Amino acid sequence: MTRPIALITGATVGIGAAFAELLAQENHDLVIVARDLNRLNEKAEHWRNKFGVEVEVIQADLSRDEDIRRLELRLQNISRPVDVLVNNAGFGINKSFTVSDTAEEIALLDVLVTAPMRLMHAVLPAMKQRNNGTIINVSSVASWMEPTAQRSHI
After folding, report:
1. Which of 10, 62, 88, 92 has the smallest number of Cβ neighbours within 10 A?
2. Residues 3-24, mean pLDDT to the nearest whole number
3. Comparing C-alpha atoms, which of 34, 29, 27 is closest to residue 11?
4. C-alpha torsion angle, residues 17, 21, 27, 28 (rounded to 10)
5. Considering the domain boundaries, does residue 99 fall inside one?
6. For 4-8, 40-44, 89-93, 114-118, which range has the lowest pLDDT when averaged over its residues?
7. For the chain, what is the domain count?
8. Does 93 reside within a domain?
């Protein structure tokens, strides 16, 4: 019997690494995704050795359309279907919106909104057909923080 497969974005540190560790411990093969190939390979080797699971490494920047497309194709692979999708990748901009770079804001939206939507869209048809699957969307507590208003006269 084959093990279930979990794909985790932002899998090399923090919550993403914790999800990967837990799922590997629960006997899931992993597809781990992040920008840093060296850390991906280190984590993959660690989980292979510690839990005896298969770990597929995909280096991807979720602000790039072509990288998201590669993940969509992996999620649509019916010969090795993904049973668990963990949308965890993210980052923040430590500047006021009024002075932040527009390109950075667009990249932020791509990573936090566009990529998870596209990845869910890619994996859900197969999950529905199998009547089985799990999607976990991780968000930051920062989304609950009220911004300090800086009033300016226009």
Report:
1. 92
2. 97
3. 34
4. 0
5. yes
6. 89-93
7. 1
8. yes
